[in-house]
Design brief:
Layout: H1 2-23, E1 30-35, E2 37-40, E3 45-47, E4 50-55, E5 58-63, E6 73-76, E7 81-84, E8 86-91, H2 100-106, H3 109-125, E9 128-133, H4 142-151, E10 159-162, E11 167-168, E12 190-191, H5 195-207, E13 213-216, E14 222-224, E15 227-229, H6 236-248, E16 253-257, H7 262-269, E17 273-276, H8 282-291, E18 294-296, H9 299-307, H10 312-334, H11 355-362, H12 367-381, E19 399-402, E20 418-421, E21 424-428
Length: 430
């Protein structure tokens, strides 16, 4: 009996020591990144050489030379440029190339969720370490489940801000309007036909895990020459009710708005961003500049639709819309409209959306300004200002490497060779 008592005591002591060892704080992992260059986003310059000391999931130091503490793992990446992970402020994880409206009809929500997880992985490996998912197209709160799985480390993917389904009026932009009405095909969006209904839908979506609210404000678009006509869906007063409700809950509204007067109503109501922004009035542009409301141009999606149209007439329509948008974009830049970068990826292949940077430069925005729009404005728009978008001490260790200088060759962003998110390396090409 005494022997058993002593054995029990020894086992109890061993278990106690083991429990103490597990609960004792672990030393944070140190990683030293070294490369030929480092991008200073804020000032639009390169620092050469470039070094970053990562402690745990945060940047401890960044510059031409940093501390080299004992025990730090050295990753010498060679003749590349280190820069912050890219931000895409307009994505659709739950869409893939093909008929958008049919995907929600023929694919189950579990199937679409699996495809969304693969899309998140592809975006991360392309260098996009933070994204704003602008609607699940009928999959409801499934995007919050994907976000949560990424946050728990169960699947690879970017940091996500998610909206759930977009909100729309009966017969509006995404209301299955091309199908036989007798079949009662469900809308890809949630209905709200009044201010009270907007508030009710917003409360339900926030309960289901949405980080922000997406509202369809205009559509269907019709372009003729340099003029765009697009009916609005909500009045200024209705949008003000939506903005007030999200503000009460500590979040914001983003709108799909391509033209007037819908864009003006949204800006007057105080939304966070005007996504697509094909054509804006002088008053809308002035208010966006003064209130720092971001335009998110989404050029890449129109180019893709033009190049993959099934009929010549559809291709011509998309090319004309892109030309109109590019001309209006120059006016918006001249008017001081603040920009963020979003591609509308989903209807075109995930992981290929760095094309958006090339198009913004092609249509008149200097590369340094595009990078600031993406990384500094994008961080603000997603609510991570001071945490992502720059290589500074205290920021999350979301870091990528590209083979050339993005200030001189923006196309280098389409060739990301190294990806670190939250201090974890997901991609490293030799």
């Amino acid at each position: 009996m005494a022997r058993l008592t002593r054995l029990s005591f020894v086992l109890l002591l061993m278990l106690s020591c083991s429990a103490f060892a597990q609960s004792a704080p672990q030393a944070e992992k140190l990683i030293l990144l070294r490369a030929a260059h480092l991008l200073d986003v804020e000032h639009g310059t390169l620092v050469s050489p470039g070094e970053i000391l990562v402690r745990g999931n945060r940047i401890a130091e960044a510059g031409s030379s940093v501390s080299h503490p004992a025990g730090a793992a050295l990753l010498d990446l060679g003749s590349v440029t280190l820069m912050p992970g890219l931000i895409d402020a307009h994505i659709h994880l739950f869409l893939h190339p093909g008929a958008e409206d049919l995907q929600t009809v023929v694919e189950s929500v579990p199937e679409r969720t699996i495809l969304a997880e693969l899309a998140a992985r592809d975006d991360l490996l392309a260098g996009f370490t933070a994204e704003r998912d602008m609607g699940t197209e009928g999959a409801g709160s499934a995007d919050s489940a994907v976000r949560n799985a990424i946050n728990r480390g169960l699947i690879p993917g970017p940091r996500l801000r998610v909206s759930g389904n977009a909100i729309d009026i009966l017969g509006g932009h995404e209301d299955a309007i091309h199908f036989n009405p007798a079949e009662h095909i469900s809308s890809n969006a949630n209905y709200a036909n009044s201010a009270d209904e907007l508030v009710a839908v917003i409360r339900q979506q926030l309960k289901e895990g949405a980080d922000f609210i997406k509202i369809y404000q205009t559509g269907h678009d019709r372009a003729a020459g340099d003029k765009l006509s697009t009916p609005y869906q909500y009045t200024r007063q209705q949008l003000e009710a939506a903005v007030a409700e999200t503000a009460r809950a500590g979040t914001r509204v983003a709108v799909h708005a391509t033209g007037e007067p819908g864009a003006l109503f949204a800006v007057q109501a105080g939304v966070a961003s005007i996504d697509h922004a094909y054509q804006l009035s002088p008053e809308t542009m002035r208010l966006m500049r003064d209130r720092q409301i971001y335009a998110v141009p989404t050029f890449a999606i129109t180019e893709y639709f033009a190049e993959h149209a099934e009929m010549k007439a559809l291709a011509e329509r998309e090319h004309a819309l892109q030309a109109l948008h590019a001309a209006e974009f120059k006016k918006q830049l001249a008017a001081g409209v603040p920009m963020a970068v979003g591609s509308d990826v989903g209807p075109f292949p995930h992981g290929s959306q760095a094309r958006e940077f090339e198009l913004m430069v092609q249509y008149g925005m200097p590369a340094a300004d595009v990078l600031r729009a993406d990384l500094i404005n994008g961080a603000r728009l997603l609510g991570w200002e001071g945490e992502i978008g720059q290589l500074k001490p205290g920021f999350f260790a979301d870091i990528i490497a590209v083979p050339a200088n993005p200030l001189e060759n923006i196309s280098t962003l389409t060739h990301v060779s190294f990806v670190m998110k939250d201090g974890v390396v997901y991609k490293q090409q030799q």
